[in-house]
Amino acid sequence: MNLAMRWFAPAMVAAVVSAQAAVPAAPQLSLSLRGVAEGVAQPGESLRIVVRVAAPRASAAKITLAPANGAWSDAVSIELWPAVGGAAVAKAEGVGRPESPSATLGAGRIAGGLWRFPSEVTQRLAPGSYQVRARLAIRDGSGWRGEVEAVALPLRIVAPSSDPDRITQLTVNRAHDELVRGLVEAAAAVLDAQLGSMPDDVRLLTARAEVALRAGNPAAALMCLNRVPSGKSVGPPSSERDALLVRVRTALREMSGTTSKPPAWSWPPAKVMELSAEKKASALRNALPRTPPSAANTPPVASGVSGGPARPVPATPPVAAPAITAKAPSTGPKIGAPSAGVVVPAAELDDKKIRADAAGQWAASANAGSSYSKPNYGPAKATGAPDVGVAGDSIEAWCPGQQNAGTEWLEVAFAQPTRAAEVRVRQNHNPGAIVKVEAFEADGTAHVWWEGKDPYVAPAIRDIAWFAVRVPPTDYAVAKVKLTLNLAAVPGWKQIDAVQLVGQGR
C-alpha cells in the first residue's frame, strides 16, 4: 500500500498543479478621479470616477467577463465610505452602457467605463475624509467568476470656498454634469457665466472647447484653445489638450467647404476674445464657414464690432504670378552668388508698420512640400495680407503635414518681380523653425539669402512673431522666395500666415 501511494503521488501532485494552472487569473481593478485636483471636492460638486479593468501583467491567458445576467459593468459597484468607520454613504451610477455585455481582457485589451456621484448626492455630504471604493463581483456566467476590489481612493470634502481654483473645479464639474445629461447648451451657459470673469483660466477654456466641439462648432473650440497661454502648467495635462486639438482640427478639415451654421450659443463669450478690436474681428473672420456669418451665427462682441471685416486686400493686385521656368543645365539649377543676409532684430518688426509698408509686396501664389489639409491649412493660406489676428492654431495659415520631424518647405511667388532688400514672414503658431531663406530670379537662378538657426525667443505671453532677413539691395529681380523649416527645432505644429517681399525703396 505504501508502495502504491509512493508510486501515484507524483501523478497526483501533477494533477493538482494542472488544476491550479487551469484556474483563470483574477482581473485587476483600478480607479481614478477626474476633475478633482488632489482629491479635494466640496458639497454639491459632482464626482467622476474612471474604472479600468485589466488582466495581470504576468498573465498570458485571456480573462472573459461574461455574467449570466446583464453586462459586465453591472457587476461593478462603486461606493463612497467614511475614511474611518461607518457604512457606505453613497453609491455611484454608471454613465452609458458598454458596447458589448461581455469583455475579454488580455495583452493590449482592457475594459473601462465612467461612473459618477451626482451633485445632489454630494450636496448632502458633511466636510471630512472619505474613501471611494470599487468592487467587481461575478457569481455566475461563462467566464471568470469571483470578486476583486480596487485600492481605495482618498477623498476630502471641504467647506465651500471662494478660492478661484475651487470655483473653477466646481464650474467644470457642473458643466460635465450637464454634458452627461446631454444638455450641451446648458453646459455652455455654466462655463460662460464663469469665463466672463476668468477668461484666461485653462481648465475653463479647455472645457469650453469641448462643449463647442460637441455643439458642431470646431472654429469656436479652436478660439478657446488658442486663448490658452503657451507653457501654462495649470489645468488639464497638455497631452489632453493636444488630443482635443487633434479632434478639433479633424472636425475643421471635415467641415471644409460646408455652409453649416452652428448655434449662436456655441460661441464663447466675447471676453474670451477680448484682446483688441482688430484681433476680435480677425478671430471672427477665421471661423467656419468661409462665407460671412449671419448675425445669428456671430458670437457676441464688444460694441463697435458687429462682425468680421472682409479679408484684407493684398498690397499688389491678386493676379497670377508669372510662370517661373528653370533654365538650368542638366547638372542642376543655376546658383547665384550668396547674399550676406542678416536676421532683423525682433524689436524692429512692428506688425502695424509692416502691414502699412508701401514698399512691401504680399505673396500672390504659393506651393509647399506638404500641407495638413486643403484648402484650410493649405499653402494658399500664406498668400495675401495677414488675416490671422490671434496667435495660435488657425485654418487661415499654412501648416505642414508633419509636426515634429524632418524638414519642410514653403515657396511663395510675387506678382511683380522686384529688386529686393528684405523678406518678412508672419508666424502665428510655434515660430522659430525657419532655417533657410532663398530668393529666386524669374529664370530660376537661386540665391541663398540666409541659413542658420532662428534666434527667436518665446515671450512670456504668446503672440504672433515676425521673422525677417535683410540683404544688401539686389541687382536682380526676385520672383519668388523659398523658406525651409526644421520641424524638429520647435515642438508643435508650425504655421505661417503671410510672406512679404520688401523692395529697395523702403
Write a concise keyword list for the protein shown above.
single chain; alpha+beta; Immunoglobulin-like; Jelly Rolls; 3 domains; 9 helices; 22% helix
Secondary structure elements and their pairing?
Blueprint: H1 2-22, E1 28-34, E2 40-41, E3 47-54, E4 63-65, E5 76-82, E6 90-91, E7 93-95, E8 103-105, E9 111-117, H2 119-122, E10 128-138, E11 146-149, E12 153-157, H3 164-180, H4 184-195, H5 202-214, H6 218-227, H7 238-255, H8 277-285, E13 342-343, H9 351-356, E14 360-362, E15 365-368, E16 407-429, E17 434-440, E18 446-451, E19 465-470, E20 477-486, E21 495-503
Parallel strand pairs: 2-12
Antiparallel strand pairs: 1-3, 3-9, 4-8, 5-6, 5-10, 7-9, 10-11, 10-12, 13-19, 14-21, 15-16, 16-19, 16-20, 16-21, 17-18, 17-20
Helix pairs in contact: 3-4, 3-5, 4-5, 5-6, 5-7, 6-7
SSE run: HEEEEEEEEEHEEEHHHHHHEHEEEEEEEE
The gross shape turns out to be: elongated
Named at the architecture level, the CATH assignment of the largest domain is Sandwich
Q: Average pLDDT across residues?
A: 81
Total number of helical segments? 9
* Global structural class: alpha+beta
Offer a quick outline of the entry.
It contains nine helices and 21 strands. The chain has 506 residues and is an alpha+beta fold. It folds into three domains: 28-157, Immunoglobulin-like (Sandwich), CATH 2.60.40.3880; 166-296; 342-503, Galactose-binding domain-like (Jelly Rolls, Sandwich).
What would you say this structure looks like, in words?
- Strand 5 (76-82) and strand 6 (90-91) form a beta hairpin.
- The protein is 22% helix and 26% strand.
- It folds into three domains: 28-157, Immunoglobulin-like (Sandwich); 166-296; 342-503, Jelly Rolls, CATH 2.60.120.
- The strands form four sheets. Strands 13, 14, 15, 16, 17, 18, 19, 20 and 21 form a nine-stranded antiparallel beta sheet that branches. Strands 2, 5, 6, 10, 11 and 12 form a six-stranded mixed beta sheet that branches.
- It is an alpha+beta fold.
- The longest helix has 21 residues, at 2-22.
- It is built from nine helices and 21 strands.
- The model is unreliable at 1-21 and 275-332 (pLDDT under 50).
